[in-house]
Amino acid sequence: MGSSALVIPRTDTWVSGMKLGKNFETGLERYLSSWKSNDDPSPGDFTYHCDPTGYPQNVMRKGSVKQYRSGSWNGVRFSGVPYLSLNAIFRCRLVFSDKEVYYSYDLLNSSVILRLMLSQNGVVQRWTWPTGQSQGWVLYLTAPTDYCDTYSVCGAYGTRNLGTF
């Protein structure tokens, strides 16, 4: 790349080793922001944060309105995301101290590239690309996964039964 090239870091994508969270000493917060469109990298309507209030959890907002939450961290995964349990591709971790709180993940399988992306329509997508293969990115996980994952759709103390939809 020449010296006149401008590289704009993606604000909608998170990769292994990056932190999603807040440093309480400096006030620095690292979060994802959706793009306005596929061709317009200016901030879109959605953000995805590690919320340190109470027990840490990941939260997606549209503007200031909460749209989705992962449930609190239980030491292995977020309680509302059972499909993030132990797997052979990546390991999730959460650091929570007086200094900072952040969520991160480490790759366990070097034959796979993994990224998390916040789409312009408010879907958190985890994509994989098996190295040595040419088919490109493969969708691995999404959140919210269904209607019941939408924040507060069932009200306080609501339960869900997917068989009734």
Automatic annotation (TrEMBL):
<keyword id="KW-1015">Disulfide bond</keyword>
<dbReference type="InterPro" id="IPR000858">
    <property type="entry name" value="S_locus_glycoprot_dom"/>
</dbReference>
<protein>
    <recommendedName>
        <fullName>S-locus glycoprotein domain-containing protein</fullName>
    </recommendedName>
</protein>
<dbReference type="GO" id="GO:0048544">
    <property type="term" value="P:recognition of pollen"/>
</dbReference>
<dbReference type="Pfam" id="PF00954">
    <property type="entry name" value="S_locus_glycop"/>
</dbReference>
<keyword id="KW-0732">Signal</keyword>
<feature type="domain" description="S-locus glycoprotein">
    <location>
        <begin position="68"/>
        <end position="159"/>
    </location>
</feature>
